[in-house]
Design a protein that fits this description.
The structure is a single chain. Helices cover about 15% and strands about 30% of the residues. The protein has a single domain, classed as Immunoglobulin-like (Sandwich), CATH 2.60.40. The protein is of the alpha+beta class. The protein is built from two helices and nine strands, in the order H-E-E-E-E-E-E-H-E-E-E. The strands form two sheets. Strands 1, 2, 5, 8 and 9 form a five-stranded mixed beta sheet that branches. Strands 4-3-6-7 form a four-stranded antiparallel beta sheet, covered by helices on one side. The radius of gyration is 16 Å and the shape is globular.
Amino acid sequence: MSMRLVVCLVAATGLVGCGERGPELAQVTGKVTLDGAPVAAAAMTFRPMGNSGTTSYGGTNQDGDYTMAFTKDKVGVMPGEYFVDIETIKMKKRDIEDLKSQGLPEPPPYVAIPKKYRGADQLKATVKAGEKNVINFELDSK
């Protein structure tokens, strides 16, 4: 498994909490698809535009659905404008075999995110305060 994906997944689940108070957070969920098919096992990052806000992390399930997290204990994203990174990692055959030999399930089939969506801040999202934000990313390979 790529070290970058491991770091993203650890960050998504291992962040330190901000206490009971902390900043205002809004729930952010949605679905990631490529040419209409769900993108499973994608690492997601919402990076704030400008100098305000804090990065939030998430990942897609088998159906391409995601929920963003502020910390390991707090679900949500600070209201504001964000650049969105969606990344998938192709596992090496030997890594997949290692998972299987440990009795773990085989990962979902690899789906490559097209180059036009990687970097260059192509994907953006607006998170609104006080409401559930459903933000879908309908990517295409053309």
